[in-house]
UniProtKB/TrEMBL annotation:
Name this protein carries in UniProt: Lipoprotein
Organism: Pontibacter mangrovi
Range of residues in the leader sequence: 1-23
Keywords: Signal
Signal listed as a keyword: yes
Length: 183
């Protein structure tokens, strides 16, 4: 009986370990890779993607690198672990604007790998609200940027429906949380 119990425990443990969610990456075109991870989705812009006016605080936006599956998984892990504390003031998250750390899976992501001034790997993540319901779509609230082949776009205003953060993979920390203003 004890042997059966041990076998069942080991089997259950093996099944649980093998079910850990992995980021699924797929090629979109020569400069973009699609990402599905847990209940979120997004686009990685590779090091060959040409930015016209890309500028992010505290990083060298001309030194790009291409994040891989493990980098995205680590960035998402750091994001989930630290966003609530970094977002404690809930800037521009009042009224009908969502609280970002309570709605992480409600955003389409755009990932850009850049280096900071110390040469550390940083993933800049641009977030777009991705939970438009049927009524919203009928009213015309639909964002065409929520597709894997969309170009990188900065949005101004829109409160916490649009925001950005940097994830330093080498230091394993979030920084530069920027939540859009409300017009």
């Amino acid at each position: 009986m004890k042997l059966i119990s041990q076998i069942l425990t080991l089997t259950l443990f093996a099944v649980m370990c093998s079910c850990a969610p992995e980021a699924k990456l797929f090629r979109v075109d020569d400069t973009k890779v699609g990402v599905n991870y847990k209940s979120s989705r997004g686009t990685i812009f590779n090091q060959n993607y040409s930015f016209d006016n890309f500028f992010v605080i505290d990083v060298d936006s001309t030194t790009q690198w291409t994040p891989n599956k493990e980098d995205i998984e680590l960035a998402e892990k750091i994001l989930r672990a630290q966003i609530k504390d970094l977002n404690k003031n809930r800037v521009n998250q009042m009224g009908s604007c969502p609280v970002i750390h309570s709605n992480l899976y409600s955003y389409f992501r755009q990932y850009v790998g850049v280096k900071n001034d110390k040469g550390e790997r940083v993933i800049h993540i641009n977030f777009y609200w991705d939970k438009y319901g049927m009524f919203d779509r009928i009213r015309g609230s639909n964002d065409s940027r929520l597709s894997y082949d969309s170009h990188y776009t900065m949005v101004f205003d829109g409160c916490s429906y649009y925001w950005q953060v940097n994830v330093n993979l080498d230091q394993q920390e979030l920084s530069n949380l920027m939540i859009n203003g409300a017009a």
